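Customer escalation, tier 2.

The customer says the design service returned an amino acid string that "doesn't look like it belongs to this structure." They asked us to rerun it and document both sides in this ticket. The original structure tokens are below, unchanged.
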């Protein structure tokens, strides 16, 4: 298991799912950089661009650039190099791009002064067995996710995005150093929103999650910093329980 270090290495990644730089900066200003990282995804990046990412990095925030690159190996490698030069803390690629693509991505950032963590996306949680069959992928989503996580590890990636429900199996299969980034997290007293298979922060950590992606329970709270602090306290006591 990873060291329980929720201060120097905060476990929460807050999803900045807002449409503009202005809204992102207002939200980010309410969230201490020492208590969380921030996820910039396709909507925000497409509207606000690299300038916003640079500003957030300059303000001391650790940024997960969630653009899920998937293209020919050279293109993905160049995109990962560009993300590293932006100073992001984490970047991701689709494991469906295969080991040549993932290896090229890793090689592009290796040895750089600032090397982001490189994470693979296995099977999108929106995909059901029938969606996989339609595109010619054999097996159920869970076994496809394990197979793709294996390819990610073999390519030297640092870990994968997965549901907290898969974390225990993946942790057992891929060892303590492989990083598991889990969305679909809801504190026990929060609503599920549109997430179907949710886990509490404490359960996700107990099952082996390394980092928790959390959006609305924090971003839509009346006091986002207080919501984040409560979640961090829950994570802290769950990790203490693991260490004991
Ligand atoms: O608001 P909420 O906590 O549901 O936000 C979760 C974030 O994680 C969103 O940015 C969503 O796109 C992302 N995500 C997810 N499920 C996945 C992969 C990413 O909810 N399988």
């Amino acid at each position: 298991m990873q060291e329980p270090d929720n201060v120097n290495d905060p476990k929460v990644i807050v999803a900045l799912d807002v449409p503009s730089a202005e809204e992102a900066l207002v939200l980010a200003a309410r969230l201490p950089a020492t208590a969380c990282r921030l996820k910039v995804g396709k909507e925000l990046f497409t509207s606000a661009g690299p300038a916003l990412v640079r500003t957030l990095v300059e303000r001391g925030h650790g940024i997960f650039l969630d653009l899920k690159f998937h293209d020919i190996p050279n293109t993905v490698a160049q995109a990962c190099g560009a993300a590293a030069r932006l100073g992001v803390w984490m970047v991701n690629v689709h494991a469906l791009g295969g080991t040549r693509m993932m290896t090229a991505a890793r090689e592009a950032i290796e040895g750089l002064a600032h090397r982001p963590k490189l994470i693979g996306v296995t099977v999108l949680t929106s995909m059901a067995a029938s969606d996989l069959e339609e595109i010619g992928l054999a097996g159920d989503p869970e076994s496809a996710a394990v197979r793709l996580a294996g390819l990610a590890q073999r390519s030297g990636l640092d870990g994968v995005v997965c549901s907290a429900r898969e974390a225990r199996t993946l942790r057992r299969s891929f060892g303590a150093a492989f990083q598991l980034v889990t969305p679909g997290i809801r504190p026990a007293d929060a609503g599920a929103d549109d997430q179907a298979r949710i886990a509490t922060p404490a359960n996700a950590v107990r099952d082996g999650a390394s980092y928790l992606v959390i959006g609305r329970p924090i971003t839509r709270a009346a006091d986002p910093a207080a919501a984040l602090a409560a979640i961090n306290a829950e994570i802290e006591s769950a990790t203490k329980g693991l260490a004991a």
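Tier 2 assessment: The sequence is consistent with the input. The pocket of cytidine-5'-monophosphate is lined by residues 15, 17, 41, 124-125, 161, 183-184, 193, 195, 213-216 (CB under 6 Å). The chain has a mean pLDDT of 94. Sent an explanation to the customer and offered a walkthrough call.
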